[in-house]
Amino acid sequence: MSGLTGKTYNIITFGCQMNEHDSETMAGLLQREGCFPAADRAEADIVIINTCSVRENADKRFFGTLGQLKKQKALRPGFIACVCGCMMQQEHMVTAVKQQYPWVDIVFGTHNIDDLPGMLEELLVNRRKQAGAESGAGLSGETTPLLSGRGYTLAKHEIRSAKDSRVIRLMDDRPVMPEGLPAKRLFRHKAFVNIMYGCNNFCSYCIVPYTRGREKSRRPEDILREVRNLTANGVREVTLLGQNVNSYRGGDWNFADLIHALDEIPGLDRIRFMTSHPKDLSDRLIASFAQCASLCHYIHLPVQAGSSRTLERMNRRYTREKYLDLVHRLRDAVPDITISTDIIVGFPGETEEDFEETLSLAEEVRYDSAFTFLYSKRKGTPAAEFPDQISEEDKHRRFDRLVACMNAISEEKNAAYAGRVEQVLVDGVSKKDSRVLNGRTDGFKLVDFPGDPSLIGKIVPVRITEGKTFSLRGALEP
């Protein structure tokens, strides 16, 4: 029997869908060892914070949450605090956690998730050794490597005394990612499926290539096997994940080949993917939206900026004109396709003219939704060293203008849905009203409508009665 059997856990996730899927995997690993989710974080035996390093706001939220856990640790000495994810792939962040939060028990990176049960078992063994040493049963002068584990990078040849039970595991990269890991999914009817890991793009503002490593694609047969198993267990929708799914290469297969093969799987009603880099959006993938019945008519296509000058400084490797041409080709192939995007405001060197180009591009494309961000300096990226940083005042002023523009477009586009009947995959019950269900259309529009929880996991027709800025309201169609 595992030493973890019967322990409760809670996982706090920051960041993208990749992090969400990593957290599902960690939950699956823990439950395989006999752990079960805690009803409340304050009562959990194990708390894991899965970190994100993309935005400064995530840093602040992480350190705030970490501070809260210190109180939990003081009240319950046996409590286990773990920190993992992208932030922990940066040496300065690991150093900060070790020095400022010495009560954190386990620190590991993005390449060590499959070893979570082993790290927890090692911690428990270390604690028993520590207790023995303090009672005189061990040698107080015993030392062991602080960064340990077969195949793991020793960033520093530090040593710890027997009084230090912490486990810190970090890998710079991993040539092959493990297959067949369990996952405790949030939804029974839909699932995330990683098709590749890492990124080779090195956008000048982005830390991801340094935290997730180089691109590695899974074998298509492994992906197909996983999706077949998922559909056999009731999954109707999969979201294919990768930092840049468009650059997937599984042997002789490209991303469009994979989409077409998945489209043949019985029982799979919907295929989504993210994130898609514009520079790799092929003609065949564009055609796939019309050719593949299960491929949803929705694409997240991050533009980041509307100025070719800024895009070049971002190392995005496409121009404003090239991006707009892709949008036109997508809409020619699939007129009803919905498009969302990411936009960064206040990138170093962004002039008022550059920002106006971003506004005009947003108005020309007329996105269904957009994730808008203030540029945040990420240590270790080229843009962090650019001399012409934008003032916080200018960033916020531009950001407010962009958000107002995007919200007006979203509200107008959503209002046009009134009277239409949409096929909605029901996800669950509204947190605000137990009589209301919510789900997503094929085009990823969020819909709220009255209904019975027995509909969760089903695709139902809903007549839209109202379009709001961020969602639609409707009623079940008889």
Q: Which features does this protein show?
A:
5-stranded mixed β-barrel; 6-stranded parallel β-sheet; 12 helices; 22% strand; 478 residues; alpha/beta; globular
Computed over alpha carbons, the radius of gyration is 24 Å
Helix content: 25-40%
The outline comes out as globular
Uncertain segments: 138-162
Strand sequence of the main sheet, in spatial order?
2-1-3-4-5-8
- The number of distinct β-strands equals 23
Written overview of the protein:
The longest helix is centred in the last third of the chain and has 24 residues, at 392-415. Strands 2-1-3-4-5-8 form a 6-stranded parallel sheet, sandwiched between helices. It has helices at residues 17-32, 56-75, 91-100, 116-134, 208-212, 220-232, 255-262, 283-291, 308-314, 320-333, 352-365, 392-415; strands at residues 8-13, 36-37, 46-51, 80-85, 106-108, 143-145, 159-161, 167-169, 190-194, 196-197, 216-217, 237-241, 249-250, 253-254, 270-274, 298-300, 338-345, 369-374, 421-429, 436-441, 446-450, 459-467, 472-476. The chain is α/β, with parallel strands linked by helices and 478 residues long. Mean pLDDT is 89; it is low at 138-162. The N and C termini lie far apart (53 Å). Helix content is 33%, strand content 22%.
State the gist of this model.
The protein is α/β, with parallel strands linked by helices. It has 12 helices and 23 strands.
Write the layout of secondary structure elements.
Blueprint lengths: L7 E6 L3 H16 L3 E2 L8 E6 L4 H20 L4 E6 L5 H10 L5 E3 L7 H19 L8 E3 L13 E3 L5 E3 L20 E5 L1 E2 L10 H5 L3 E2 L2 H13 L4 E5 L7 E2 L2 E2 H8 L7 E5 L8 H9 L6 E3 L7 H7 L5 H14 L4 E8 L6 H14 L3 E6 L17 H24 L5 E9 L6 E6 L4 E5 L8 E9 L4 E5 L2
Parallel strand pairs: 1-2, 1-3, 3-4, 4-5, 5-8, 9-12, 12-15, 16-17, 17-18, 21-23
Antiparallel strand pairs: 6-7, 10-11, 13-14, 19-20, 19-22, 20-21, 22-23
Helix pairs in contact: 7-8, 11-12
